[in-house]
Amino acid sequence: MALTCALSNEVPEDPVLSPASNCIFERRLVVKYITENGTDPISGEPLSEENLIEIKTSPIVRPRPPSATSIPAILKLLQDEWDSCMLHSFTLRQQLQTARQELSHALYQHDAACRVIARLTKELAAAKEALASLKPQAEINVVNEEEGGMEVEANPEEMTEAAVQKLDETAAHLTAERKKRRNRPPEGLASADTIREFHETSSHPGLHSASKPGILALDVSLANPDRIITGGADSRAVVFDKSTEQVVATLKGHSKKVTSVLFHPNPDVVFTGSPDSTVRVWSVADSSCSLIIKAHQSGVTGISLHATGDYLLSSSTDEHWAFSDIHSGSVLAKVADPDSSALTCSQFHPDGLILGTGTANSVIKIWDLKEKANVANFPGHSGPITSISFSENGYYLASSAEDSLVKLWDLRKLKNFKTLSLPEGYVVKAVTFDQSGTYLGIAGSDIRVYISKQWDQLVQLTDHGQLATGMKFGRNAAFIASASLDRTVKFYGP
Is residue 8 part of a domain? Predict the structure, then answer.
């Protein structure tokens, strides 16, 4: 059997056996390796020249050496180069094998880490879902064990004398306060010149999911003007603090998009309405739903808080508006539209004794809350009403519809006294007065602000990439917040 050197794969002239690896080497090559490294080339164990075992083999017949010329010296040089190449090739093979093993180990660790991260992410999402669905104990009506919060079925009750008395006392107090002010603007209200200088001061994208893009509703807290709440197409509401630029709470529970949001004067309570036919009352402190009011059989299109802070108005495509107690969840009144038209928006009058609703058949209707009666109608638009807003003085009502018009109505004379001219094809999604009634804001194709009485345009803001779905004034009109289908909330200031 022919013997080959483990280093050169050639038949050795002077074969030796290494006891460390039991491999056969050409003595010349292995001695050079031992001299440089002191270890066995194969096993890497310590090895010296004295440990090598000589192997007796039959003599190899080689051709006679060439004549004594310079050729033998050249051959000796070539032999040395060959020996060096063999040793270098062997070292490279060993390094390649080591690198392959390290790469394989690193890839295994990376794959294992990715699997652990994916599992933890899934567990975190499941934990958040479980937390969002936690339900406090309830002793009233029906408790839904899947959605979270106390779900109150619509069983309309009659308004008690105590409730009616509270409504009357609140209206009388607000009317007296308004007379004391005598239409004087509040101290610190931003001037018209200041409004003209408004421009974008900050923009906050990504508050809602990109899978169902679009912010559909917006409100600014009066108790804490730095906080806003947005409702999105991703079925969530988000409370955001503009001073810290942080999300304070993410409210998840609706099964459909959130189209109405509202702050309570208590900064820890907010309301949301959705096409899933429910109104939810939330605690911002722990992002929990404390009450679910199910006063409607179809989607909720608008919500408004009464001046007492104890009652909530809601309108729906089921052709009804409802008046509910936000503490017990009981529905004190549920009134149908006499024309059997879906209601598209709603709002309380500042005094709280009357309310307005917009309808799908282009009519704005005024209702007496205590009598539950339709007392006035404002026809004039030619498309479904998209938004209504009462002025703080109680005299004016602004309305918008899908006819690209904004109309102003005098509640004393029951007529339209002004129609704001907008560009052809302009889309109006929302109209809103500031808290003093001095300024009127319009959100839609862009953001516009008008001054009351003169009804002149003060500023036009075109920073959103898509339709603006809502805008609100900060306290004393110090800033404007707006939301859009482009998933951004923008703030404007001087």
Answer: no
Nearest Cα neighbor of 187 from 395, 485, 381, 476 is 476
- The structure tokens listed for 345 are 């928006």
Torsions phi, psi of 16, nearest 5?
-135, 155
Cβ atoms 247, 240 nearer than 8 A: yes
pLDDT tens column, 128-180: 877 766 544 333 333 343 445 555 555 566 777 777 888 888 888 887 777 77
Terminal alpha carbon distance of the chain: 97
User: From CA 474, how far away is CA 223, in angstroms rounded?
Assistant: 11
User: 3-state SS string over 434-450?
Assistant: CCCCCEEEEEECCEEEE
What's the CATH number where 229 sits? 2.130.10.10
Domain count, the chain: 1
Domain span including residue 223: 150-493
This prediction has a pTM of 0.67
The residues with which 465 forms a beta bridge, in sequence order, are none
Judge whether 135 lies within some domain: no
The answer as to whether 363 is a domain residue is: yes
What are the phi and psi torsion angles at 359 (to 5°)? -125, 165
The helix (run of H) or strand (run of E) holding residue 87 is helix 71-132
Nearest alpha-carbon partner for 388 in 344, 435, 352, 437: 344
User: CA distances (Å), 410 to each of 174, 225, 304, 391, 399, in order?
Assistant: 20, 30, 21, 10, 12
User: Per this entry, what is the length of the chain?
Assistant: 494
pLDDT digits (tens, 9 = 90+) for 395-433: 889 999 888 889 999 988 888 988 888 888 898 999 999
Q: Is residue 137 situated within a structural domain?
A: no
Contact predicate 453/414, CB 8 Å: no
The span from the CA of 380 to the CA of 401, in Å, is 10
